[in-house]
Design a protein that fits this description.
Layout: H1 5-8, E1 12-14, E2 20-23, E3 46-51, E4 64-69, E5 80-82, E6 101-103, E7 122-130, E8 135-144, E9 151-155, E10 158-166, E11 169-173, E12 176-180, E13 184-188, E14 194-198, E15 202-210, E16 233-236, E17 244-255, E18 258-266, E19 271-276, E20 281-284, E21 305-310, E22 317-324, E23 327-329, E24 346-353, E25 368-371, H2 381-389, E26 395-397, E27 402-408, E28 413-414, H3 416-420
Parallel strand pairs: 9-17
Antiparallel strand pairs: 1-16, 2-19, 3-4, 4-19, 5-18, 6-25, 7-8, 7-28, 8-15, 10-13, 10-15, 11-12, 11-14, 13-20, 16-20, 17-18, 21-22, 22-27, 23-26, 24-25, 24-27
Length: 443
């Protein structure tokens, strides 16, 4: 273990997509100077490049980092198939489901019921596309009650955007350590090895995107500042383990939607120094600078976008990560909660804490909703009546609450597990009390 663990856990570099460099303070000068791949690296380390984009991508989108490690990651036994549990990319196992869907909070087994770590606790809820062609996404939930011990995971298919909802995660990566708590998110990009330590019963959500990386949305007329500011993203610093594992260390790989495991005799977190712009990172959602309507009507929820994974069509995303943080509502002559609508996008929502303004009952922390393409949705009857008669004065909205949305241009298919687990069969009833207020004589 890192001799200065408690210190390094609190150390990060800030910025989004920067060119970073880091070396463990126990080995000063571990980073080669003036070149990436010297004949002999300092301290007898191995140089290894991790590429997150094609070599020939334009400089603005070229993603790569150089890792200087005690042993290269190639030193492992052959990969063998591993039971993948409820992790899937088979979107045809059940018939399409166009209805509004709501899930009760996903249950976390206790350790006495069933021991689950981050990998064995992965459950795929919905998705579209497929990883072989590197186009699409998947939405997973994770429920776990134990840490990964002498096991790490990496995803050959895409990036993981991890949203913890209950319990903090200490994520050890090849680049260093990230401590991620509820109301924070982290992104582990394609190919990066990581292990997750938990401190009790833990739950959260994952947005996985194939073939693209998350980036900050363009600001357009907003100007130079606002939404998620680049300096608030944090990247870990190098902290290596020089640890042999006599009983074997398991490296788990998600490849073309399947899990495989390989054995090696040492910890993969043996990177003494690194530099580059392809890194894991985390972000505190409370730092989001909210933009909102200050006169009348609604601004579109795209103004709450934290990160986006763009498609090849301008302005259309494979996936957006959108949040609904505490803010002021001041719009005049306006129905302030989200309006009723049908959308060409798919909207998956989760709740980290508090109660969502448009559905204060039924949509609970640790649960979720899915409103598919052109499926109508909006405030429940109680919310509509309350907001229609409320005195319009400046008010705090969503105080103590953090809801989020994974929004996608793809049509999301629900898995068999998703349709059989914690589904609220009464969801549609929240709109049944809505009554007609139509009066043809009213002017």
């Amino acid at each position: 273990m890192c001799a200065v663990l408690s210190f390094l856990e609190r150390q990060y570099m800030s910025g989004f997509g920067n060119e970073y460099s880091s070396e463990d303070p126990r080995c000063p000068g571990a980073l080669p100077q003036g070149q990436n791949n010297p004949q002999v690296c300092p301290y007898g380390l191995y140089a290894e490049q991790l590429s997150g984009s094609a070599f020939t991508c334009p400089r603005a989108t070229n993603k790569r980092s150089w890792l200087y490690r005690i042993l290269p990651s190639v030193c492992h036994k052959p990969f063998q198939p591993l039971d993948q549990g409820f992790l899937t990319h088979n979107w045809d196992e059940v018939e399409p489901e166009p209805n509004q869907l709501r899930w009760k909070p996903f249950e976390i087994p206790t350790g006495s019921q069933r021991k689950l770590d981050f990998v064995t606790g992965l459950h795929t809820l919905c998705g579209a596309g497929e990883p072989k062609s590197r186009n699409g996404l998947a939405v997973h939930v994770f429920t776990c009650n134990m840490s990964m011990v002498n096991r790490c995971f990496y995803n050959s298919d895409g990036d993981f955007l991890i949203v913890p909802q209950q319990g903090k995660l200490l994520i050890t990566t090849e680049f260093g350590k990230l401590l991620v708590e509820p109301n924070e998110i982290c992104v582990i990009q394609q190919g990066m090895r990581f292990s997750v330590e938990v401190f009790g019963e833990t739950r959260g959500y994952i947005l996985e995107v194939y073939g693209v990386h998350f980036e900050l949305p363009d600001l357009g007329p907003i100007g130079a500042n606002g939404l998620a500011n680049p300096r608030d993203f944090l990247v870990p610093v190098a902290c290596y383990e020089d640890r042999r594992v006599a009983e074997g260390y398991t490296v788990i790989n998600k490849y073309q939607g399947k899990l495989f495991a390989a054995q090696q005799a040492f910890s993969p977190f043996n990177v003494v120094a690194w530099h580059g712009n392809y890194t894991p990172y985390k972000y505190d959602l409370s730092n989001f600078m909210v933009i909102n309507a200050t006169a009348f009507d609604h601004a579109d929820p795209s103004i709450f976008t934290v990160l986006t994974a763009k498609s090849t069509s301008p302005g259309v995303a494979i996936a957006d990560f959108v949040i609904f943080p505490p803010r002021w509502g001041v719009a005049t002559n306006t129905f302030r909660p989200p309006y009723y609508h049908r959308n060409c996008m798919s909207e998956f929502m989760g709740l980290i804490k508090g109660s969502y303004e448009a559905k204060e009952q039924g949509f609970l922390p640790g649960g979720a909703t899915l409103h598919s393409r052109m499926t109508p949705h909006g405030p429940d009857a109680e919310c509509f009546e309350k907001a229609s008669t409320a005195k319009l004065q400046p008010e705090r909205v969503a105080e103590g609450t953090m809801a989020f949305m994974f929004e996608s241009s793809l049509g999301l298919a629900v898995t068999k597990w998703g349709l059989e687990t914690r589904l609220d069969q009464t969801y549609y009833k929240c709109w049944e009390p809505l009554k007609s207020h139509f009066d043809p004589k009213h002017k």
